[in-house]
C-alpha cells in the first residue's frame, strides 16, 4: 500500500526554461542531454507495463518537449507522422551548435568531415 497526499501547486516559481534553452544553444552537450532525456522518457512511458495508466497516445508531447527545454523535436518512431502546433522549434540550425569542450568539438568536426 502506498498512501497518497494531494500536493498544492507551487507559487512564485521561476521560469527557468528560457535559461535552459539559451544554455542548450550555447553548448551542444546540454542540447544533446535534453534530447536524450526526452527520448528516454517517451520510450520508458511507451514500454511501461501499466499501459492503462501510461497511455502513450494521451501523452502531451509538445508540453513535454517544452518542459525538457528542447530546441526541436527529435526524430523517433513514437513521433512519426505527428504534428505539434503547440511546440515552436528554434529557427537556428541545431547542427551549428558546437560543444564548449574544445576536444569534443574537434572530434565532432572530424566526424562531420568524414561523413561528407
Automatic annotation (TrEMBL):
The organism's place on the tree of life at top rank: Eukaryota
Q: Which InterPro entries match?
A: SPB4-like_CTE
Keywords attached to this entry: ATP-binding, Helicase, Hydrolase, Nucleotide-binding
Protein name in the entry: DDX55 helicase
Q: What are the ATP-dependent rRNA helicase SPB4-like C-terminal extension domain coordinates in residue numbering?
A: 15-78
Q: What is the lineage of its organism?
A: Eukaryota, Metazoa, Chordata, Craniata, Vertebrata
Q: Where is this region: Disordered?
A: 93-116
Q: Name one GO molecular function term.
A: hydrolase activity
- Basic and acidic residues composition bias: residue spans: 98-116
Which species expresses this protein natively? Thalassarche chlororhynchos
Amino acid at each position: 500500500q502506498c498512501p497518497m497526499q494531494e500536493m498544492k501547486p507551487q507559487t512564485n516559481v521561476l521560469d527557468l526554461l528560457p535559461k535552459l534553452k539559451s544554455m542548450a544553444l550555447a553548448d551542444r552537450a546540454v542540447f544533446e542531454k535534453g534530447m536524450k532525456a526526452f527520448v528516454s522518457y517517451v520510450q520508458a512511458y511507451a514500454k511501461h507495463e501499466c499501459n492503462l495508466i501510461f497511455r502513450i497516445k494521451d501523452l502531451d508531447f509538445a508540453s513535454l518537449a517544452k518542459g525538457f527545454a528542447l530546441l526541436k523535436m527529435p526524430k523517433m518512431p513514437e513521433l512519426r507522422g505527428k504534428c505539434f502546433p503547440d511546440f515552436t522549434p528554434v529557427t537556428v540550425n541545431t547542427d551549428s551548435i558546437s560543444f564548449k569542450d574544445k576536444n569534443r568539438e574537434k572530434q565532432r568536426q572530424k566526424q562531420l568531415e568524414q561523413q561528407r
